[in-house]
């Protein structure tokens, strides 16, 4: 699938997430199960996320509660924002893609939490 900088149809950050966007980047990690950033973007797109090409090689995926940047390194890096009240929704979405993941999340109090797929070594 070829994504453009204009993006695909799909949900954008909703009012609840936009109200928390001032927290900035609060999630980062890797997707070691992805064959590349394009592959990861395609899996998010199939799951109903909005996808746009943010550079020649990077992709932005977005839905009502999260906006993530996929960087084509090995493994694929992911950074971005998730509404802290819906972190469990993001983790469920990652599990639904079938990708292995390792994420760190900074909560609104500044504490960091590690989350990973069951098949990912800690």
Characterization of the model:
With 122 residues, the chain is an alpha+beta fold. It has helices at 15-20, 37-46, 87-97; strands spanning 27-31, 50-53, 59-62, 66-71, 76-82, 102-106, 112-116. The chain has a seven-stranded antiparallel beta sheet with strand order 2-3-4-5-1-6-7, with helices on one face. The chain is globular, with a radius of gyration of 13 Å. 29% of the residues are buried.
Which stretches of 5+ consecutive residues score pLDDT under 50? Answer: none
Strand content: 25-35%
Distance between the termini: 32 Å
Give the total of beta strands: 7
The secondary-structure element order is HEHEEEEHEE
- The chain-level mean pLDDT equals 93
- The order of strands across the largest sheet is 2-3-4-5-1-6-7
Task: Give the % helix.
Answer: 10-25%
Cα gyration radius (Å):
13 Å
Task: Report the major sheet.
Answer: 7 strands, antiparallel
Number of H/I helices:
3
Q: Find the structural class using helix and strand composition.
A: alpha+beta
Overall outline: globular
Topology:
Blueprint: H1 15-20, E1 27-31, H2 37-46, E2 50-53, E3 59-62, E4 66-71, E5 76-82, H3 87-97, E6 102-106, E7 112-116
Antiparallel strand pairs: 1-5, 1-6, 2-3, 3-4, 4-5, 6-7
